[in-house]
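pasting for the record
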Amino acid sequence: MATITDRPAPVAGGPRPAKRRASKRISLSERRPSFVVYGILIAFILGSAFPFYWSFLVASHDDQKFTADAPLLPGGNFFHNAGRVLDTIPFWKALGNSIIVSGTVTLSVVILSTLAGFAFAKLRFKGRGPLMVFVVATLAVPTQLGIIPLYMAMAEYGWSGTLGAVIVPNLVTAFGVFWMRQYIADAVPDELIEAARMDGCSMIRTFWHVCLPAVRPAAAMLGIFTFMMSWNDFLWPLIVLNADNPTMQVALEKLQSGYYVDNSLVLAGTTMATVPILIVFLVLGRQIVAGIMQGAVKG
């Protein structure tokens, strides 16, 4: 039986890997970001926030005054321009429609994509590989190619002009399935699934109690991506909805119709339409940061 005294003694003056690794970890943990790093981060934040600030700046001034002499500080006409937006377009109806469409699509995409990703990542069934390749291949098909047959299908079902025509075709996406499949394959070990089955968990309970808590960061990121894409979708709602039942992006398009474009009016409506997205960011921000940090640690 080997004892401590049997271990070979370190060579005098030789390398000591363990102590060197420890000292390296200490030096990395004690390293402080330089002013260059702070400067890059500040420049990135200012560059990201500038478009929103510019929109609010234009929206808070009179359009003619702003065109003649562009100020750098916000003015006092934002609420006046916001009132003109409410008088020009059905803002509240469009806001409600966009919240219904984006919220329903986001909830459906997150749930169905997580279920499909769990099946592709952890279940063994015939044709799993070719079916996953088919799902990924649909990402290469442009959305514009399916607009005409999709419109014909919505007209045949009698859904043209209703919110169902915008919601139903987007209930699940190939990107969401691929995103969740890749995350579940890395974040949920097969041994954990097998242990849950040996303890008598059904497939649904295994998904709910084992898989779902581990994939919340990825689900939150998918949710905010889907909400943004659905909120900013313009082409398909413009085609399938009528003027009396628009979403927010379709309603904002009416602000710039005509020979003269009132920039203060357009950007006041744009600023007001951005508020729901900022609220979603604030609500899901903690989960998004956790997902980014978890991915960075794994990388």
